[in-house]
Amino acid sequence: MAALLEIRDISKAFGGIQALDGVDVAIDAPGIYGLIGPNGAGKTTLFDVVCGRQVADRGEVRAEGRAVGRLSPDRLARLGFARTFQECRVFPDETCLDNVLFGAQDKRLGVEWRQLLTRGMGARSARRDEAMRLLTLVRLDTYADRPAAALSYGQRRLLEIVSTLIARPRFLLLDEPASGINPTLLNVLHDFLLKMYEERPIVFLVVEHNMPFIMSLASHIVVMHQGRVLTTGSPADIQRDPAVIDAYLG
Ligand SMILES: Nc1ncnc2c1ncn2[C@@H]1O[C@H](COP(=O)(O)OP(=O)(O)OP(=O)(O)O)[C@@H](O)[C@H]1O
Ligand SMILES: [Mg+2]
User: Fold this and answer.
1) What stretch(es) of the chain map to CATH 3.40.50.300?
2) Measuring CA to CA, how many Å separate 182 from each of 42, 102, 179?
């Protein structure tokens, strides 16, 4: 059977910089996959290629056997790819609830929500209920009617993640979700992501520099270094791999 997500021999250069240099990653089953590596390793560029923001110079991306490497971000979103950005993106002037509802409404919604919406009456309140449930899980329910600009940076990151999850993606790529989040919210984020995964096991691919966070969240880790995959393994294996320690110490 075809891999859920297969990244095969992907290369991408920017001028003289080889950001990706023959990256292979095969994801055969749903799970929470951590993607780690030093600054400049190519993690965000790999997300950009998988989500259609950049076109690779070489190689291909396949989702359940289908070549998706040249599709636009919108087409990919309709196939169930969703991401957050390293620099958090929310609509600061809109309320937190509207930020989330926009995530559910936009044209990139997943099939399940489209079906729900076309069922008409009741759909709007179902969406609203779900938005409030997710906001409550990340402790933002009391901010539902306030503009996103009122949130701390860490809270905005949580809002962005909720806005992405409500579209019910099948592949969710989070670029440094824990960055700028205080320790209390970090625990909220950790438990929230695990709960979301338990409710709907999909492919989570999470770029992270916070090692304790990603090692306890993910079941598999992919390590990148200088545009290549250095190694893959369980969090326990990765943490005692001398090649990984060397890559980080540079
Ligand atoms: N649009 C671009 N134009 C030019 N160079 C780029 C561009 N995007 C990325 N790069 C370069 O490609 C390399 C990989 O960058 P990338 O952002 O993918 O790394 P990263 O692993 O996400 O790093 P970090 O952990 O710091 O976010 C870096 O040398 C970066 O400067
Ligand atoms: Mg990055």
Assistant:
1) 1-80+170-185+201-250
2) 26, 26, 9
What CATH topology corresponds to 1-80+170-185+201-250?
Rossmann fold (3.40.50)
**How many whole angstroms separate alpha carbon 211 and alpha carbon 179?**
11
Nearest CA to ligand 1 atom 24: 39
State the distance from the centre of ligand 1 to the C-alpha of 39, rounded, in angstroms. Answer: 8
Ligand at minimal distance from the CA of 48 is 1
What pTM did the predictor assign?
0.92
pLDDT in single tens digits along all 250 residues of the chain = 789 999 999 999 999 999 999 999 999 999 999 999 999 999 999 999 999 999 999 999 999 999 999 999 989 988 999 999 888 889 999 999 999 998 876 545 555 555 555 555 566 788 889 999 999 999 999 999 999 999 999 999 999 999 999 989 999 999 999 999 999 999 999 999 999 999 999 999 999 999 999 999 999 999 999 999 999 999 999 999 999 888 887 6
